[in-house]
Amino acid sequence: MWSAIRAMVRKDLTLSRRSPVFVVITVLVPLVFVSLYALLVTVSTTSPVAVAQEGGGPHSERLLQILRTMHNTDGELFEIRTTDPGDARAMFAAGEVGAVLTIPADFDDRVSAGVPVEVPLRVYNINADGTKNFELRAEGAVREFARDTGGGVPVTAVRENSHFREDMGTSAYLGTALLVFAVLYASMVNTGTLVAREWEDRTAKPLVLSPVGNAPLLGGKWLSAGVQTLAGTVLVLAGLAWLLDFPALSLGAASWLGLFVLFAYGSALGTLLGVTLRRSLPLVPLCVVLAIVHFFLSGYESYLRGFAHGGAVEWLWASTHWWPTAGLTQDLRLDATGLGDGGTDWAALGGTAGIAALLTLLAVVRMRRQLRFTQGQ
Amino acid sequence: MNEMIRGALAAHRRNVRLLRRRPDLVAQGVLVPLVVLVLCAILFGSWGDRWPVGVIDRADDARSAAITDSLAQSRSNVDLYFETIEDDPRAAREMLEDGRLQLVITIPEDVATTNEVRISTYNVNTDATKNLRFRVDDALNIHDEVRGALPATVDLRTVAEEDVTRAAFIAGGVLLLALLLGSMLLAANVFAVEEEGRTAKELLMSPFGAAPAALGCVLTATLLAYLSAVPTYLTGLLLFGFTPDVGSLVLVLLFMLPLLVAAAGLGVLLAQLLRQHRAVQPPVILVAIATFFVGGGFVSVPGMPPTARTIAQWWPPSRVFEWSNPVLHDFAGSYTAGQWAWGGAFALLGVAGAYWAGRRELAAPRRGGQ
């Protein structure tokens, strides 16, 4: 048995060495996707804006200072691209910025005189989300300004009590979802194409009908795919650490076990798809779709949970939140950030492993029952 | 030249017949954008701006009523910011503990004297929690403006009378993605079929080699990309409020024609280099999806961070989103002459790339009995 598995792994790795393009692609493509998507993390944090600073007094400077320094743990909330009124309007007209905020020339006089002053915010409203982001940040800035200025009537104070001891950085939150995506995608595509390849290369019949059974075929494919997936995962982790400051080194033993279970789950899915479809043409896009679906539904589950009340979003959440990869993803990010209580979601781990076992069983049954070989096989 | 055109048309006819028998060659270009559209639009856009919250009014006096009114008035250009779904303190606390609510606002009995409201947050991540806090700020600004506590207020002015909803913006971006991905993937799939189906030798032995077949793939992919994008368009139209003006839509589709030729040419080139479906598909599909997210399909490029803006500046597909979105959503009447010229130049590059790929087939290694 073990010699058969070793032979299978040796054969696959030799093929990969002789034709390395596909291996390079499966290792690098998730890294490219993850790296590009990682750029979106700062989109939710920082809004590029032009400020037309017409007022030059201390109040104007203070408001500008607030705009410059507003931040959360992910970074600055505004990227002020210019404060020159002419440049600001020109950039807005040319479509180089999505909003221009004007601090009017009479801003200081009116604030000093206690006369409320309007701060015009002009927005290119091609996307309501962008309009909302600019407006809410500006509302936050004028509120901060009101607190600082301390007029006769104090603004209403807010005292906050948070569930977690600190906000989880969006970079860690999304970084974990991207890591899960990368492991699932790599394991599914690697295992699936290695299995389907036997049918494409017309070598499946002797493997499926081998007297030693199907274990060497599946074990060999999983081991070969594991080597490629490990290489891809290490690269993605390094990329996330570099791009998002993702705390890769903080992942504990339970998280690594979780990633291994995710690999098994992805490989089981890939195996089932491989033996069912027997061609990589439909397999690869299906794997991409499955990985993307897991990325959004399991990766964003804890975010989705809070606003899934009514409509399509509630239906989507209710029909998917119980899938164990959601709990596994949340467990990974709580472990990486240290914001959890130190416990492990064994139900999610066990559930994912159980589904992996079930999918593998289905793949074996499918392989044994569908003994049809075509094109000279 | 006529023979080359006749060869390309013959290859195109063959491709169409092949695609009728092999819908799996087209299905990916339909399926991938549809999944991206449905997930992104539901997750990020379909629920509007209303955030379900719990509001507990323990004071039940004039001040607390004014604050509650402000919470009810607080809104974006498209929707209210809050929807109170729970006012029972215990139920709200339990929902918050479970993450089923991310914000509970409590107006204490002594709000009139302390001038303080309390909020409890399920601070799932900085982005969501920041938005919740800003929404509370917005509501309290309404309240404090009436009280005369705000020295400055924000006066929002927009270029168009109405905002394009996020779901509609995403749907427009995914439609462009569907066209580009459909064209590139279809061209790559059809060209790689020759290698995988072991018919490349027959093409090479024809008098004009594989170049007419490569050009035929470009023609097939360009024309069928429009068909493959129809489900995405209809989904956006029927489910996510994507209702572009017919004239604008036709103009965008016309402008996309040279760009689809370019995408198809690139697809053929990639298929010639990578040879097999399993090698061609991952980079094409994942890079296309990533381009949608960081190239202007999901968020406009001016709203992106500096690194993404720099990438978009050098990444040609992002121009497709940046040039077409304003036309699609009636923020621009038409494309500029320069944009048409760039489109034409890209089309020529696509045709030249496909032709070169066809010529390169002569030098490609043959295997599998070919």
UniProtKB/TrEMBL annotation, chain A:
Membrane association type: Multi-pass membrane protein
Transmembrane segments: 21-40, 172-196, 222-244, 256-276, 283-300, 346-365
GO cellular component, one term: plasma membrane
Stretches of the chain forming a coiled coil according to its record: none
Location(s), subcellular: Cell membrane
GO molecular function: ABC-type transporter activity
Key word DNA repair present: no
Keywords associated with the record: Cell membrane, Membrane, Transmembrane, Transmembrane helix
ABC-2 type transporter transmembrane domain location: 22-330
Pfam families: ABC2_membrane_3
InterPro entries assigned to the protein according to its UniProt record, in alphabetical order: ABC-2_transporter_component (IPR051449), ABC2_TM (IPR013525)
The protein's name: ABC transporter permease
Native source organism of the sequence: Streptomyces chumphonensis
From TrEMBL, chain B:
InterPro entries assigned to the protein according to its UniProt record, in alphabetical order: ABC-2_transporter_component, ABC2_TM
Annotated compartments: Cell membrane
Superkingdom of the source species: Bacteria
Pfam families recorded: ABC2_membrane_3
Molecular function via GO: ABC-type transporter activity
Keywords for the protein's UniProt record, in alphabetical order: Cell membrane, Membrane, Transmembrane, Transmembrane helix
Gene Ontology CC entries for this record: plasma membrane
Transmembrane residue ranges: 25-47, 167-191, 203-229, 249-271, 283-301, 340-358
Main location: membrane
Keyword Transmembrane helix: yes
Residue ranges of every copy of the ABC-2 type transporter transmembrane domain listed in the record: 31-351
Membrane topology: Multi-pass membrane protein
Name listed for the protein in its UniProt record: ABC transporter permease
Record organism: Streptomyces chumphonensis
Lineage of producing organism: Bacteria, Bacillati, Actinomycetota, Actinomycetes, Kitasatosporales
